[in-house]
Amino acid sequence: MCTIGPLAADGRLEPFVRDTTALSRAVVIKVEALTKVFGASAALGGFSFEVKENEFLTVVGPSGCGKSTTLRLVAGLIPATAGKVYFRGVEVAAPIQDIGMVFQSPVLLPWRNTLRNVLFTAEMAGRRPAEYRRRALELIQLAGLGGFEKSYPHELSGGMQQRTAICRALLLNPALLLMDEPFGALDIMTREKMAFELQRIWSSNRTTVVFVTHSITEAVLLSDRIVAMTPRPGTTKAVVTVDLPRPRDVNTMSDRRFVEIAAAVRENIAAQWVE
Amino acid sequence: MIGRPRTLWWRTAGLLAGLCAFLAIWQYGAPAARVPGYILPVPIAIAVRLWQTLPVQIYHLSATAATTLIGLALALVIGVLLALTVVYVEPLRTVILPVLAGFNSIPKLAIAPLFIIWFGLGAESKVVLAFLLGLFPVFVNSVTGLGEIEHDMLDLARLAGGSEFRVFTKVRLVNAVPYLTDALKVAFPLAIAGSVVGEFIGGSRGVGYLILSGQFNLDTPLVFATLVLITAFTTAGIGAVVLFERAVLAWRPSRRGR
Predict the structure, then answer these.
(1) Given A77, A110, A125, which is nearest B161 (Cβ)?
(2) What's the ipTM?
(3) B164 min Cα distance to partner chain A (Å)
(4) What is the pTM of this model?
(5) A111 and B174 in contact by Cβ < 8 A?
(6) Across the interface, do A77 and B155 touch by the CB < 8 Å criterion?
(7) What gap in Å lies between CA A82 and CA A65, rounded to an integer?
(8) Mean pLDDT in residue range A248-267
């Protein structure tokens, strides 16, 4: 379980105690031999993986290997050609309601300010937005958007818009957060900053996450485990466990272990270009 | 001070000065160039005629305003309903779109005489013409405003458990508002043209009728006076739409000063 370690001498929290109970943690998502064919072209060719409670799992792979398709299948937004997705042991046949989703573009409603954009999920779920106001404001604070509650999307930077989208996805405290290259449209500096921001937001309650990215650095920085995919039709190429302590910061990136893991992931993706 | 935004007062003053200069040139230039009054009456003659005929003008303008607004209201309701069918009922889309596109290629003013035969000399034929002219812009913009929602947004709504009704009221309808106000700015003058052409062709009420009687009597100042009033009415209508936009669409990034 996600217990927090004892206070270190310098007063900082010790890293989370990792993996001692990994085997006993509940499986949130189980993907079994997932295949998806669009017309004559197969996007996924028997992709399998598992995501456990409170786990941050990242899927990396070359362009077009079916990463985004995988997320849509997991969410139940599109039907699989073959194979199954189980959400807490139940087969997914329709959109799962207990899910938060973040896309590459923030998809905010331009006529709503930050607060009302965050409350959008509550309204869609048919709940009274007033009841979620406090949680929304807390999330906005947590995401570093305090003071921008009343700003409209066009008044926010790309990174701030994407943080608004993350708050919106977390509002109903979903069992699972799906993130489809959420920082893909941001410039490289903002992108790195957003990865640390996300880690900070995520650490506050450790929602189970499936994160899709092209960036190996981002994957290693954020994840508990990384699934490397083969080119189209995508399947599992390798699974890499990231045993770096949290919280991870800029210094982690020059850590020897970090470099080793990143190299291992890169190797798995690069090997495919030779084949 | 080039490029510095001027105040509203200065802009209004500039506009009025320009208008006065234009009217002055007209007032003194036309007689100097020996243009007879029945070809181009001078502004003061038009103003006098407007004043003399004001009760008659208002009587006729009210008829035109009524048929225009009723036609426009019908265009709004039916245009939005047709757009909804196109957005929601996939099989009907392939039927309605080409039919309406084909229908739009018929010059509606050219078949106005038919509407007089079908709906009579009264207000009905004018309402139908105003409606038909206003319908297409409303329909086309509604299809865009209601239909063009990002796919990711619809997925988000579905994942949050949003019913199609909630998506409609909270996403599609709000998204369509600026498209509808834009459509109204185009449809309003068109609907007036529809009413006026209907009045040209038959009937005894409306500014179209008044203009025709001015023409028969070679009362050109009367024709101009009526035109001034119709223009004022059109401007007022579009102005009302703009005021509504400012009130409701305050969230839009300001386009001025960019």
Answers:
(1) A125
(2) 0.82
(3) 10
(4) 0.82
(5) yes
(6) yes
(7) 17
(8) 90
